[in-house]
Amino acid sequence: MGTILPADRTGLLRGYAAGAVTWRDLREQGFDDYIQVLGGLGELGLRPPMAPMSGPNVEARRRGRALIARLLRAHADP
Amino acid sequence: MTTPFSLIVTDTSPLFTLVMADALDVLLRPNLPVTIPDAVYFEATRVRGAPGADGIVEWINAHLDAVRLVPTEIGIDQQRRLEEGRSIRGLGELAAIEALDRYIRTSPSATALLLFEDSDIGRRRAVIDDRVALISTGDFLRELERAGLIQSADHILDLASQRGRNVERQRRAVSGEAVRRGLREQLRGRE
After folding, report:
1. Inter-chain touch B164–A39, beta carbons under 8 Å
2. What is the DSSP letter of A73?
3. What residues in A contact B11, CB-CB < 8 Å?
4. In what order do the strands lie in the sheet with B67-70?
5. H or E element: which one contains A10?
6. Does the reported pTM lie above 0.80?
7. What is the pLDDT along chain A (78 residues), one digit of tens a residue?
8. CA dihedral B56, A18, B125, A3 (to 10 degrees)
9. Which residues on A lie below 8 Å from B31 (Cβ)?
10. Number of residue pairs across A and B with CB atoms under 8 Å?
11. B9's torsion region: left (phi>0), alpha (psi -120 to 50) or beta?
12. What's the ipTM?
């Protein structure tokens, strides 16, 4: 990673866990891979964010969740 | 005839999250073919022996009947960029779009589900055809939780970050040892 100062790194990771910073932002700030992100979150006692059901892709996400739910049910049924 | 359907992985983050939690198999639970574009695969596994990379390779090899690696033009460009020492950042997603375009052209009824990382899907608009739906790692885990197939989504995410922390500590220890070795060699050279 190299160029990110520890304080900046912590701030970025906290922002990421809180949903204020995106994975794309982290990459642009110098995180090389997602393992670094997971590791940094783990050091801080945080977990990766789960996106709230809001934002520009809500309808497509609802369809996606409905599809997965249907497939899981179909697969579980005898 | 059933509708052709595929789950397309657009980024390395779902793979790393799930491999760290030892939970890659959840991707197979909906019984959908899983498509991993070459650029996503290469980005996830390019450092041989790197944490998670071997697990992803082993998992794919164990499920070749259900998991497909798809070659793309973007993947070829990625190799070229690497040879030239240029950045390959973000190419996985472009490769996924190329794989998606090709896939939905195979049949008028082909349908796809794109798997994204949560923070990106929450903030950036994805260009979507009616035959394409989106899902984030978190959405996916929530549905598995709701179906009673995993203990909890939070548990998987906690495991991923806890194991990621251990990996990062090992990396730092190895990196620190490499620096110390370099210093020792420099000092010996002066003697």
Report:
1. yes
2. H
3. 23
4. B67-70, B34-37, B5-9, B111-116, B132-136
5. helix A6-17
6. yes
7. 456 777 789 999 999 999 999 999 999 898 988 999 999 999 999 999 999 998 888 999 999 999 999 999 987 765
8. -70
9. 71, 74-75
10. 171
11. beta
12. 0.90
